[in-house]
Design a protein that fits this description.
This protein is an all-alpha fold. It folds into two domains: about 140 residues, Ferritin, core subunit, four-helix bundle (Ferritin, Up-down Bundle); about 150 residues, Ferritin, CATH 1.20.1260.10. Helices cover about 65% and strands about 0% of the residues. The protein is built from eight helices and no strands. Helix 3 packs antiparallel against helix 7 and helix 4 packs antiparallel against helix 8. The longest helix is centred in the middle third of the chain and has 28 residues. The radius of gyration is 22 Å and the shape is flat. It comes from Iocasia fonsfrigidae. This is DUF3231 family protein. It holds the Pfam family DUF3231.
């Protein structure tokens, strides 16, 4: 979502961090320490020089993430878990551990860490700069996943799921999982569009109406893209919602605060589907890029939406962390 003036009316400086955010910082550092140690062990057994470069780059990315998270931990006086070893070296090479096995473990670790980052984003609603850093980590992590997956595909190290049987594709075909995700994403956006239109009928605040209109525009653009993909790959499209929705309920019965919280929870739950679709898009690289773009848009919308709710004092007051 593009930045608009209503998100900049107030700047709230956080002097405290929530208990959830304190846990997120500690937990992500702890997970990353394990990723760094595992990577340092695995690199002793890698035979392919190009793969070794990818592994070293991945370890460095984990270290960069930890450096940022440690700065937050120091700032808010959060105790740190034990640090990883700087390097782990073996005097012998064990050929029984193949590059393919190492690759699959690396990819699994990237996927797991991405899910943990997304969970942390959803509960990091107090500290804006922390949430922004976590969003950047997810984007970078999934871009690294794309790079790693393409490399593994080239090497023949990835398992390709059954294809979706339609007319022969000019370039890449579609897997059954990818066809399912096109359909699931359309259902999600049709429902989100209906809900947004419904809430527009009950919204009183002019600024909030502007926020919903921007969200509606993004949804409409994504729906058009998904419908185009569905037709291209002959995926049956779900029933489209009506353009006009009757709302015989008195608008005064629904408060803007309730509308905001309802939409926020919908955005939070949608991020899991976005991540799953990226990870499951193993046959069609172009489709994976589309889903990645959708996730990036969703995370930016979520970040701005959280800021807006705090500005309006519509956000829940969460437990705050107190240093020990």
């Amino acid at each position: 979502m593009n930045s608009i003036s209503i998100f900049n009316k107030k700047r709230i400086k956080n002097k405290q961090i929530s208990t959830a955010e304190a846990h997120n910082i500690w937990n992500l550092i702890n997970l990353n320490n394990l990723n760094i140690n595992t990577g340092n062990i695995f690199k002793n057994f890698i035979h392919d020089p190009e793969f070794l470069v990818l592994e070293n780059n991945t370890i460095e990315e984990y270290k960069k993430i930890n450096k940022t998270l440690k700065n937050f931990a120091i700032k808010y006086k959060i105790s740190l878990p034990s640090m990883p070893q700087e390097d782990i070296q073996f005097t012998t090479n064990i050929d029984v551990i193949t590059d393919e096995v190492i690759f699959k473990n690396m990819l699994k670790n990237i996927v797991y860490f991405t899910h943990e980052l997304v969970a942390a984003i959803k509960s990091s609603t107090t500290t804006d700069d922390l949430r922004k850093s976590l969003i950047d980590f997810v984007k970078n992590n999934l871009n690294r996943y794309q790079t790693m997956y393409k490399y593994g595909k080239l090497k023949g190290w990835v398992e390709i799921p059954p294809s979706y049987k339609t007319k022969p594709a000019k370039n890449e075909s579609l897997s059954v999982a990818e066809a399912t995700h096109i359909w699931d994403h359309l259902i999600l956006r049709y429902d989100q569009l209906c809900l947004t239109n419904l809430h527009l009928e009950f919204t009183h605040d002019p600024d909030f109406r502007g926020v919903l209109q921007i969200g509606k525009k993004v949804l409409s653009q994504q729906i058009s893209k998904l419908e185009e993909l569905g037709l291209k790959f002959e995926v049956p499209l779900p029933k489209k919602p009506p353009l006009i929705q009757e709302t015989p309920i008195d608008p005064e019965l629904i408060r803007d605060e309730f509308t905001y919280r309802n939409l926020l929870s919908r955005i939070q739950s949608a991020t899991d589907l976005h991540v799953r679709s990226i990870i499951d898009s193993t046959r069609n690289d172009d489709l994976r890029k589309v889903f990645l773009k959708f996730l990036e848009e969703e995370l930016d919308i979520y970040n701005n939406f959280v800021k807006y709710g705090k500005m309006k004092t519509w956000s829940h007051i969460v437990p705050m962390y107190k240093e020990e």
